[in-house]
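Aim 2, interim progress: modelling of the magnesium ion-bound target.
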Amino acid sequence: MFNKILIANRGEIAVRIIRACRELGIKTVAVYSTADKTALHAQIADEAVCIGGAKSLESYLNTNAIISACIGTGAQAIHPGYGFLSENHDFVRLCKKCGIKWIGPSPEAMEAMGDKANAKQTVTKAGVPVVPGSEGVVKSFDEAREIAAQIGYPVMVKASAGGGGRGIRFVEREEDLEAALDSAKQDALSFFGNGDVYVEKFIGNPKHIEIQLLADEHGNVIHLGERDCSTQRRNQKLIEESPSPVIDEELRGKIGMAAVRVAQSCGYANAGTIEFLLGDDGNFYFMEMNARIQVEHPVTEMVTDIDLIKAQIRIAAGEKLPWAQEDIKMSGHVIECRVNAEDPANGFRPAPGNIKHLHFPGGFGVRIDSAMYQGYTIPPYYDSMIAKVIVRGNDRAEAIRKMRVALAEFLLDGDGVCTNIDFQLSILDDECFLSGKYDIGFLTRRMQKEG
Ligand code: ADP
Ligand code: ADP
Ligand code: MG
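Predicted structure of the complex, ligand included:
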């Protein structure tokens, strides 16, 4: 096992990883930007190294400073968390060269899944259904038009290097295809430095269902069931739950095994997630793989009683998975709400600031993952997510009631700070959400109705 790990991240996920290391008796090194001098992760780690300026490019994406901090403190491994460098295979190769272990998959597996058009082809060979569309990248307008005519409108034009919902265009009619292709390419070029796009069928009113995987370096792969992440605003997840209210044991087995095959097809090790679209006809389609830990991992932790961060560390240390597929049991119902520092009354614009009063909810089955404390000032430079509230009930109705109680008790007062807590509470009262049959478009439709 490692003696010391460097955490190349900030905020709640850095705190989450430091706690797991502590439990395992591993020393921790935090890295922080000049804007994060007083951040919780920098205070609770055994050591903390300043790696540069407030802007992510100068600090949390500053690969040389992070490698130097690692070598200088004698840390043997890097945990990347999510976002920042977590999906950067060049950085993983650099770590390898410097003799630093990456707590995540191999750069080859990351590369195979990083290009989305490419990943679809790899996955198809493994016998996993993908959204019908072009075989890889489309090279010309004529090719795109032929494919779109074959699969039928509406279609989606998507950036092959895409992420975060960027470079995606919805096309209803052939007349609009050329313009959509051009503008998706423009977006893809400016966001990802790569203008490649592909075309696929638009799936009407699907659910976003993702499968959590664990794989060791000895070829064992298991799945830990699904998360339903269909509560989205602008392709951003707001609420996640497990089990999904529309998935039974049989469908779970089918999607779960498809996800396992995806991991096997690229020699994947460590924790990963496969995202699928699930149609209302029960058909499901591979969408993409996230080769890292995800924001919503606590949902799976609470429903399976497995600590995914500790599992990641043990896998990276070369240990075998201590579980076989039949050992994985889901029990009860878990819901997570993301608390963001943003102002729903003003187009959800970020609303960071100084926290004067803070009270976290608690009680039986309530978990808070956050890096906030009273007196802390949320810096404006990073993601606006400031806390995750996770509750576990015996069934979905109990979990929803517990979440309402927890959010109502969540107190945060300060200068300039707003949160989306009331907005989250309104979703928990939404009939469509309560029915469990909500799809990825339900929030948008509701908000359009309300103007
Ligand atoms: P998850 O799949 O874990 O739910 P999110 O979409 O919520 O991931 O993103 C997790 C974090 O990663 C956020 O901080 C987000 O800003 C960042 N992120 C996601 N995609 C990208 C990307 N393509 N480039 C940079 N950062 C990203
Ligand atoms: P990103 O890499 O930006 O996360 P995804 O491929 O995961 O991109 O798609 C983001 C979101 O866009 C999905 O969660 C889903 O809501 C929607 N979406 C993507 N592809 C389709 C499709 N073919 N049909 C309908 N909705 C889609
Ligand atoms: Mg996605």
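Residues 82-83, 163-164, 237, 290, 294-296, 383 surround adenosine-5'-diphosphate (ligand 1) (CB under 6 Å). The longest helix spans residues 249-265.
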